[in-house]
Structure formats: structure tokens, C-alpha cells
Give the backbone structure.
Amino acid sequence: MTAPVIIAVPAKGRLQENAEGYFARAGLKLIKPRGARDYRGTIAGMDGVEIAYLSASEITAQLAQGAAHLGVTGEDLVREMIPDADARVILLEGLGFGYANVVVAVPQAWIDVRSMSDLDDVATAFRLKHNRKMRVATKYVNLTRGFFGQHGIGDYRIVESLGATEGAPAAGTAELIVDITTTGNTLTANALKVIEDGVMLRSQANLVAARGADWKNGTLDTARRILDRLASQARAQAFREMRTRFKGCDDALLAVARETFGIVTPFGGPTSSGMLTLHCPPDQVFALADFLRGKGADAISVSDIDYVFTQDNPLFERLKTGVQL
Amino acid sequence: MTNPPTVTVPEPYAETLVSARNLVSTYEAAGYSRAHPAILQPAEPFLDLSGEDIRARMFLTAGRAGEELCLRPDFTIPVSRDYLHSPAAGRPQGYCYLGPVFRDRGTLPGEFLQAGIESFGRTDKAAADAETLALGLAATAHFGRNAPSIMTGDVALFTALVSALDLAPAWKRRLIKDFNRKASLAQDLERLTLHAPNGKADYQGVLAALAGSDPKAARALVTDLLSIAGISAVGGRSVGEIADRFLEQSTLGAAAALPRETHDLVVRFLNISGTLDDAATAMRRLAAEGGLSLDAALDHFEARSAEFRKRNIDARRVAFSCAFGRGMDYYTGFVFELRDGGSDEPLVAGGRYDDLLTRLGSPSPIPAVGFSVWIERLSDSIAGGAS
């Protein structure tokens, strides 16, 4: 009997759209057979998969417990919520959305504080002067403790804050904060600045696998099929296909192109008639086209690629070596 | 009607509890009253005094009004708080205790037994330290460990050394704080010596200019600038505080390169270890060579060694190291650990914490010294010895 692979995805907002887009680009359309308000779904045309729509923190908790096999969640939550995270989950791939940095921010008026070692000194001086410890408002209790510990800072107290953290110093409930920021605008608007070496984590949404989930009864094979599509799509996204044919094309020229433009030649060197298919990173397409014409190419066609299936599958390899069987 | 068969459920620590109770009875006989602090405690004092690191190891819960509560992770703070709230507060009083404490220790049980004593208000500190060590040794002996290794240190000696050095106040503050965090202590010492830049490039010029000017005028300038920006108290620090420390940067920056010989002196000091007498001789020599006045701290050190002899503690068995600390900020003087030969984990550990009661709200300082006994480790060693 085949057990379903449970994939936990965000239940609302931009994260949900981005996650659905990520799967859809790989031809994995998430559907809710019982209507849009349902919190369970499937993948169109694929058996043995169950989609669980949950909040990002629930997704993280489910992955930690092994109640979901795969999930889309932020690295910040993984590192914060799961003790010894790398022993419990595998971060398979950064997904290129949900970017956020977890940072230490202090009032801009603290002109004497630029580095974490400044903060360390201020913390000690603060305790000696005020006979209480400096308060740090944050929802990242564990990340903060780890990071402050690394910097040898002991004279601080954490005040848990589950919303509008950046307002805490102005409200007088904390002296400084640890929070996520994407542009820094919210911090600036609240007269806060990020400490120079105070970026704890550069986070983004990740495809995460639970080491402790049940990977028997065919689930690993179902996961392989899903990851195969995701990997082939990810590889396709990373390249444009360029086709050309010209006499001067030889191995030496390809070696130069590999070195200069980061191309790959999935089907080997030029055919006997000089026909060549290249995969080129999108931002190098124009430079490469110039280069090839300079070497004698008359015409070059460039097209988007939908999938690149290869023998190796890095996502699945990472999963297979990481899970307990 | 017949009675159902009697089923006895063993008390979790039944075997060792009897022995532990006997130990605590000997402490009661020695004049220490039995303390019974509550198991459920407010979390605040532990987080405040032991640091946020302990949060990861505490079992926390919350009251209905949202106040943070915890299962006591140790006895020192609960016994100290109860003493402060008792009529005996401020007067000399010793307590002994026995009961479970609660810490998340990964694979080990989160609940385990500790015994110990806390002695408050004694001004004959050297004698009180010696009595504490003697009662700690009584605990190991009670469980059949007659020759544990005795490791001792004295935080006050390092504090005295740093105070005697010709250093900017900010650096003294840092070094004393770093004593319990050896990694950053080494780092700070290097930084002092090498004078590595502290990532302050933006204000370096301003700071250098201010360093040479009249301190009062400089302070007024910075305070004014902050006031013009419409800043008063920000994040709990006043404008004056910010200005003071901003100007302190100029002392830290321009004049902070620690002479190599001072650096070497501190490193040499931290490397002093051996018997009590040898260490005292080495410290006196170092103080004389460096032209430092450590007399008060060293006199106290030697007075304590004399008290050890009065208590028949074999001085040759007491190892001392200037770098030895217990990693806890609240110790202020003598610290010790009793261990089995090769083990890293103490069977008995404690020390002097003269500031703790002030930080718990005592209006005047109350000297305090005490230790904890890891009953399970001692009973393990009994079991190990028996099998």
C-alpha cells in the first residue's frame, strides 16, 4: 500500500501565491478538490500526494515532528523553532522568494553603537548604571540567544514580542529589537538602525524535508517524482537554450565559452555538421551572442526551456542521503 | 471481603534519598536551618541573574495573568529570596536544603535531586569560605568519596588585578565581564594589545578630534547635537549616557593600545596555578614586578588558606588556578568544584556571591557563600563502586 506524501504549504498571502507558483512552474498544479476554502488539497494528475495548507509556523512544527514530509517555510522559522534544526530537517533548496534578514537594531540615536562589541559594552554599562538588564524585544528568542551568546553578550533580557516589534523601543518596553527586515524601511521609520555585524541570518523561503517523516511505503518514490520535476524545472529556469551552426566551432572555443559565460553543453560538442546546442545563464545571453558572432556564427536562436531532465537529481540525492530508512 | 494486594510504587529516588536526608541532617546539626523553597518560582530572577542562556534549560510556564513561572532550576536563588523575605534578613543565617531541581538536560532526566547549603550575612568571610568547603567535602565523604579532586579559584583576585591596571574604565568593565567567558577574554586582550580597529571608521576623525579637547566641552557639544536632533531618552538610555560613552570611544580608540608588558602580565596572571602557597608566592612576585597593589586581595587569599588548615583540609590536595571561574556572573570571590578523578562534571560546586542579594533587592549588601551537591552523580559513583 502506498502512503501519501504530505506537503505543507503556506495557507495564505503572498507566500501561498509564491509557493503555488513554484510548484506550478514545474507542472505541479496544486488543487483544492473540495473548494477554495478547504485546507487540504492534492496535485493535479499525481496520485499519492496530499497538500496541507497551514501557517508558516505550523508548517515548521509539522516538519520538525515528521508529520509532514515536505514543506515550504522560511529558514528563519526553521532555525528559530527547531532545536538542532539540521538533525531534524533538510533544507533542500532556497526558493528565491520570502527574502528577509533577521537583524539586531538599536535606536539611531545610539551614535556610540556600531558593532556587536559596542553593544556588549553598552549592555554591561547599562546594567551597572540602571541596575537592570537591557531588554531585547523579539519573536526570535532562540536565534537571539544563540547570536548574543556567540558575541559574548550576557547582560540582556529577552522580551517576547509577537507583533509590531519595531515599536518597542519608542514605547519603552525594550531598549532594542531583533526582527526581520527586507528593505529596512520600517526600521528607519521607527528611528532604528541595524548594527553593522548584526545580521544574524539571511533568510528566504526554502523547500524543506523532514528527516523524521515516514519515508517507507512508497513515499520516497513519490517524493522522487516530485523532486525530479522541481529539479528539472529549476535547472530549466537557470538557463536559456541557444542554438547555432558554424564552422569555427570547436572544443577550444567551447572551453573559452564555459570559462567566460558559464555555459553548459548538455548534448556534447558540435555535431559533424557544426550544429551546436548550448545552455547559457540568462544574464549572459547577449554577451555570448556577441562572442559567437565574433567567431563566425551567422545566426543564433535563443529560447526558454521548460524542463531539463538529467540522470542526476540533486534535490532527491539530498533527500535520500538525509532521511532515515 | 479480601483486601486487594498491596502494590508499592517506589519513590523515584528512594535508594539515595535516605542517604541524602542523612547528609542534610548533619548540616542541620551544624547549625544550618532546613529551607523549603517552593518548586514553582517566578522565572524573572533566574533569567535576570543567571542570564538568558538558562532559558533554554528551564521548564517555563505562565500564570493566568501572563506572568512567567518556572520549575526551580536551582536552590540558590529561591533560598536567597526566601531569606530576604524572612525576619532573619540581614542577619547571619545558614540554610541547608534537599529536593528536586528541574533543568532540560537533553537525554538525561529533567528532574534531579540536589542538596546544599547557603550561608548569609557572615562577615568573617575567610572562615565562612573554609567552612563551606569543609561541608562540601563532608558531602562527598558521606557518599564514600574520600579523595575527590578539589579545584578552587578566586574571582576577586582577577577583579583586583584589573582594578590595579592603568586602563580606561570601559576596558576594565569589559575584562571583568569577560572573565567568565574565556573566549572573549582572550580576544579582548589581543584587541587591546594589537589595537585592532573596532569598525568605527565613520566617526574616527571626530573621535580623534574630541579626544584632545576639554571633556566637559566635548560632552556639551555631543549632548547639544543629540538634543537638536530632537532626541531625549531613547531606548532607556539618556542622551547624557550616549554622549558619555561616545566620548569614551575616543579613549578606547586613541589611547587604548595596551603595552605588550601589561598584556603579558595579565596572561601570566591567568596562567598561575598550583598549590595555594605556590600560587600566593607567584601572585606576590607578579604584583611586585608589575608595581601593582594586590595586597588586600592576597591577604584575604592567605587568610582563607589559614582557615583551611584550621578545618583540617589538607592544603596539598587543594588545587588553585587564577583562571578558574564557574562561568556564572554572580560569583564574586572564592569558587570551588569537587570532582571524581577524570570527570569533567562536579559532584559538589559552589562559591561566594556577595552581590546576589543586593541584586535581589536587599537594601544593603549581604555576604553570601554556598554550594550544591549533585546527589545523582554521587549515588552513581556509589553504584559504580559497588558493582
Q: What stands out?
A: The interface with chain A takes residues 47-48, 51-53, 55-56, 170, 173-174, 177-178, 180-181, 183-184, 187, 198-200, 202-203, 222, 226, 229, 231, 234-237, 239, 241-242, 245-246, 248-249, 329, 359 of chain B (CB under 8 Å). The longest strand of chain B covers residues 93-102. Chain B has a mean pLDDT of 85.
